[in-house]
Queue: 3 jobs
Job 1
Amino acid sequence: MTPPSRQGDRSGRRDGMPENLGPLSAPSITRAIAISIIGRTVIYYPVLTSTMDEARKQARAGLPEGTVVIAEKQTAGRGRLKRTWFAPEGNIALSVVLYPRLADLPSLIMLSSLAVLHSIQTVTGIRGRIKWPNDVLVNGKKVCGILIETDVRRQKVNYAIVGIGINVNLSPADFPEIESSAASLSKELGKDVSRLGLVRALLAEMDRLYLTLKAGGSLYEEWRDNLDTLGKHVRATSVDGVQEGIAESADRDCSLCLRTTDGKLVRIMSGDVTLSL
Ligand code: BTN
């Protein structure tokens, strides 16, 4: 594994490339950033199999809450529902180590998707939408995927890892495996986007929303109001199989309520939805 850099390394600039478009670094991410928890410690790797694995190691070793593991490139990135996550260079792939209360676990879904929406809008002006439960879409295509892995024993959360992958500077057309479903910020804008600016905005926003949660605030209404899925006819795949119907509402526990074609209301706790025609 290529050795990591932590904040404190001297330079975030390489090869004369402008810092905001070149490789990331821990010091450039944390420089003069006003945050309390998320992003206090950033560990950067040029290459990792998956930031989830490294973050889990850090969590088990008891590293401080809010530690961020970020990689320029992942060779075995993973997604929800045992899918692989395609993560070439030019994108953002990071995982955040958290030690939340059990009651706050569902809110991590809301926190992460809202933080991505807000930071994308701040940095690029692009307004995304959330596909239940926490994909971020731009013009109907996926620009960000979020994976949350937790270790909960006897009603106690040992740790939660929030993994975020954003398609930033990438041409989906160059990658047949994602071409039809993926969006990228550079494609939408017609020019490259500062990954450094976006990572910094994302961590600042996650930190702000995490403090809101810790203070007893709710992210539910804003998450619900940004769900692209509600009111649409969808096919939901979950542990209970495949169900089709109109997505009627989403609850505070992040479940989705589906009105099936025979009029029944079913609750999907976790899974994935696609639009059905
Ligand atoms: C999904 O949409 O299925 C979730 C994708 C999550 C991808 C991110 S990239 C950073 C972190 N490391 C991983 O291996 N996965 C998550």
Note: Residues 230-275 form a domain with the SH3 type barrels. fold (CATH 2.30.30.100).
Job 2
Amino acid sequence: MSQTLAFVGLGNMGGPMARNLLKAGYALRVFDLSEDALASARKAGATVVATAAEAVTGVDGVISMLPASRHVESLYLGDNGLIRHIAPGTLVVDCSTIAPASARTVAKAAADRGLRFLDAPVSGGTAGAAAGTLTFIVGGDADAVQQARPWLDAMGKNIFHAGHHGAGQVAKIANNMLLAIHMAGTAEALSLGVANGLDPKVLSEIMSKSSGRNWSLELYNPWPGVMENVPASRGYSGGFGAALMLKDLGLAAEASIASGSPVPLGELARNLYSMHCQDAATLDFSSIVQLYRKQD
Ligand code: NAD
């Protein structure tokens, strides 16, 4: 018999992830604060309900994909929080990128009520979410990871067990700090070349076959028109919001303070994103190139 899952948070990532679960044959009970997100999930075959508490009623598992720590803590632990509505023994998988300490807090509160919890942040962007090729970086008990594996397989290609509760978040934060650094570096290099007379497509091709090659350059090029099907070529819409990147760089800064491990380039990237977010917070994070580009 096919399983029924609750899915809360149907944004740029959660929407396509939920669609892949539906395609794989799972029945979904879904909730989001956005009517548009709910309408498109309904169209894809999900059962839309009026509250998160209703979504988790009678399900075999719960998946959430929310913006930040405060949303996740409030969903599970706030007034009328979900941990009071989910049946004991149920596995909860939070795929949001949040502070490791928040993930541990929710995991502990869940365990106190007989629930199982995994932090399972993802990498691969909206394209990976749509294609079902995400990388899941999971923290929690090994047997819970095994239980979640078929769900994660329906949404992704690589599943890593990083360690205990919160470990998935630590790995994800380190990855995204590096992503911000190479995105800003790529934007800077392209801007330098273009300001000195080069065609951004030609320069991208050269660097892709040279030692400057990296994911931002080759798969998510920030310069408009260089690459099809990336946010830069659709007005920086529908990708990974600059405000979410700034949030992740804040998490890296917190982890740096907590551990005493310096992150000078991460801090520089955080300052760049902080300036950029003053007027471009909702654009995709590759729009950082606008800080460098001479506007025509
Ligand atoms: P998003 O802002 O597009 O979507 C978040 C969704 O959560 C929205 O639809 C919002 O209405 C909903 N929401 C917020 N609070 C809610 C609540 N209390 N109950 C129900 N729904 C609620 O964000 P996104 O781009 O989908 O990112 C989600 C998470 O994934 C973030 O933690 C982000 O850092 C991470 N992430 C994003 C990407 C990306 O490329 N967009 C890639 C990897 C990881």
Note: The mean pLDDT is 97.
Job 3
Amino acid sequence: MLIKVRKPWELREQDVTSQQLYVNRRQVIAGLGIAGAAAALPVSALAGAFDGAIKTDWGKDELPTSLKDITSYNNFYEFGTDKGDPKKYAHKLTTDPWSIKISGECAKPGTYALEDILKGQDVEERIYRLRCVEAWSMVVPWNGIQLSEILKKFEPTSKAKYVSFKTLYRPKEMWGQRRNFIDWPYEEGLRMDEAMHPLTMAAIGIYGDTIPNQNGAPIRLVVPWKYGFKSIKSIVEIEFTEKEPRTSWNIRLPREYGFYANVNPTVDHPRWSQAKERRIGDFFRTPTKMFNGYASEVASLYDGMDLRSFY
Ligand code: MTE
């Protein structure tokens, strides 16, 4: 019998499965519980690496964007600047073995294998809206771990006020890094309370399967109330810092991209309006919500801050 081992970037069932069907399948599985679902459905229907992920209520009423769109319309400048480039070139990236260097203000610095970091963690499914600063958006069913659960392991000290993240620098596999489009490697950062917020996630899967390379394999950040550029892909370094860390887009265009980058329809980008967005797959633009619709969860993090100057 020929068993085809699917590469993470190859598309599968969900490409051709309609969004509604996927939602229904999720509900069926959720209703049965994983053990029951496994018994009731053919193995092929449950082939994803994270089909056993804990279902959460996040985004349960959202209609997820198709896997095809999520994996073929990307920003991952290490592989080129066209939206289709990451899908074309990201298969060149070696994601196994993978380790992450932990440094700075914490009790347990070191270089850890990804398996060791993930060991014992519960993988959840959370459906989040992703709003790019370029005014397009998607709804992504992520599989991953609450970031706070990972960061806690390294015992950040009281001096850790921020946390910074870096993407892999490997121009041999990431041809975009041979051009000085960004001061590589891509880096991003969060304030510690943002990083520890229950909404912040380290994603390792999409639609129940391993995260495709073009979406940031093997592990990326997901911060749903901020513009997508904060959600850094393919992370190899995490540093706890006392001072606000450098961030790639702020270095490149400081007037356009600040450290906070909270989704805010009332503050326009210097070159375009942020009032509306186009959901990929939709024709019409819809109004953008404050904090991308997560205001009740996160607005209090910014009490007393002028959100116009902390853009
Ligand atoms: N991370 C790295 N390392 N390089 C990038 O170019 N692009 C960012 C973010 N993370 C980017 C990155 C931007 S601008 C967005 S909108 C999201 O990834 C896009 O994520 P997606 O391609 O999975 O939709």
Note: The first strand starts at residue 54 and ends at 55.
